[in-house]
Amino acid sequence: MKGLLLKDFYVTKANISVAFLSCIVMAIGLSIVISPSVVIILVAIPLSMIVSSTIISDKKNKWTQFAITLPVTKKQIISSKYIAYLFWTVLGMLIGSLVCYIILKVTNTTDEYINIFMGFSVIISLLSGSFIIPCNFILPEENSLIGTILAYSMTSGVLALFIHVIKKVMGVSNMNLTLLIICSISIIIYLISWYITQKKITNFN
Amino acid sequence: MENILEVKNLSKKYTEFELKNISFELPKGMIMGFIGENGAGKTTTIKSILNIIGNYKGEVKVFGLDNKNDEREIKEDIGVVLDDMFFPEILLPKDINTIMKDVYKKWDSDLYFKYLTDFNLPKDKQIKTYSKGMRKKLEIATALSHHPKLLILDEPTSGLDPIARNEVIDIFRDFIQNEECGVLLSSHITTDLEHIADYITFINNGEIILSKTKDELIEQYGIVKCTESEFKKIDNQDYIKYKKTKYECELLVENKNEFKKKYNVNTIDKISLEDLMVLMVKGEK
Amino acid sequence: MSNYALKLTNITKKYDDFLLDNVSFNVPKGNIVGLIGENGSGKSTTLNSILDIIERDFGDVFILDGEKNKISNDIREKIGVVFDGNNFPEDLTLEKLNNVLKAIYSNWEENKFYELLEKFSLPKNKKIKKFSKGMKMKLSISVALSHKAQLLILDEATSGLDPVVRDDILDILLDFVQEENNSILMSSHITSDLEKIADYIVFIHKGKVIFEETKDNLIYNYGIMKCKLKEFNDIEKKDIIRYRKMDYGYEILIKNKKELEKKYPNVIMDNIKIEDIMLMYVKGCE
Hints:
The structure holds 3 protein chains of 3 kinds. Chain A is mainly alpha-helical.
């Protein structure tokens, strides 16, 4: 498994440069308009997206076909993507937080939205990932792109729905608590997706 | 005009590679096999002939006309299959027919669909679903369906199984029955060329090593096998290249009959194009 | 301890428009088995089903003293696979690929890998996407030979390569089987390569195994008789494997050249190449 993770690390690193830099630039710009902590989500999401795209590029490169002949199980091939996805989400959040912190220090301001954007990062990334990762394994190339776009839009909608439900139905008005609840739900959904995918998917074509 | 294709002193410089003074002639009614390693210059030569790449020096005449000035006219009559050519994957073979009808004056739809049937290529499936071999056959069908006079083919049988190759070779043989036509065919599958080529041109490191009729080649060239001690007695001038293996020495000899007389050898093995290439490229002088 | 590196029995897989039908053959240890057949005949399906890339419906596979139908990771350590085209992520350099494979194979031999790269003149610091077809193939083979594999499986590995590169690769494959426990199963359209190095030839046509013969038998004992209609009618049915009616007469594929040369002295008898045998089976009548 270590080898698979290392390979995705190299590939993601190689593909970061342009996407990453443009996101940071965009994030810094937006942070002035909205709030510095928006950087967190704008770094975490693209990084995790690169990982889910490696599933497609692996298929195209015939790496997946080759990887099955290696001394790794199919379950490990799938799990390595879930782990890498988590890793780059967290890494993205850390980098985003660092940039946000620097901006706040430099401009000598505070930002009350930090918790919200951190929460959003976790929720959007994990909920989307739960859907995108199995889709990329199952669907052919063109359809997975649509799946990716759908996933992120759907997730934002679901997030809004959750917040509304928790506020109205459960009567929780504290945003931090609300986000904490939804984060936990997202983590659970992500783990369920991980379990089901590595159990059910045996055919990578 | 006796030559359907004439190349004179074709030269092109790249940073890491140079095509140097390529010259050869393809007479009408003949098939020329073009052999050489990957990277030796076959594709560059072919692309220069077709004016796909420019900025080269030298002269290229097709049907007696200049390939740059009369390009449009010439291309009506040239059928091309290139190694890295591809059709957009979402197209169907019948879409290609619709497109080509407007491109070539002599496009023959009936002939095109006949080739599709003969080759077992489904008309209504996207090219995306085609295997490597099927794509090659589709390219060949397209190249032949506008009644060209000259076929320029770069690895047309690559990826095809022996049966399909046999069918395709037969089609080229039929094509050349018309004495006004010609075929320039580059291939790594030298056994195919041994079956149908009349001429062989061998390019190595951007230079033409030889350009002869296949018959001359087979008659004149040979491989001599001898022991190390025998090898030492042989004059440097009498062989082109040699290769030492664990057990013996192999020599590439240009003039089989002379060599036989001079060194009193009974038999010299008949040479295959593959052996010729390997010894030329990997042998030492 | 089995004598076989690979034993296939009744491998069957059904698709909508194709059936791999009870494919059985063996790869004895220390030997090279060539797999031939038309495109779409089932060669890749067979290889993929051996490696578990696709699931078969039925049939048994024994690989390298492993358990029946089980390819454990231990067994995968000992199998080297080379597919046609590219096998690796294009953004990696060879150094990075080495690190990845080092972490995957327990028997990865880094020194041997770099030695092979040297031998093939493959640059360590260029991204794989810049490699030519021949270079990518040499890379795949280097990888397959650098983890103490005992069985090499090559699927159209020499397709599109020039004769000089193919000569290099064939030499390396021959070296590999010098070791008695090493074996190779390779599918190829370039039958002249198989004529050079294979010990056995397995011919698959429309999903079925047509024959599993030693190469020597095919080259020395199979032949082609050429004659006119009159002579054709005198030939016993049992001697004819396949025949074709050509413009100039009949061509007949036979299995026992020496015997039939004596039996039918008036008929022309020619040696035959593997690709011609294939052609006769596919296009000839029984």
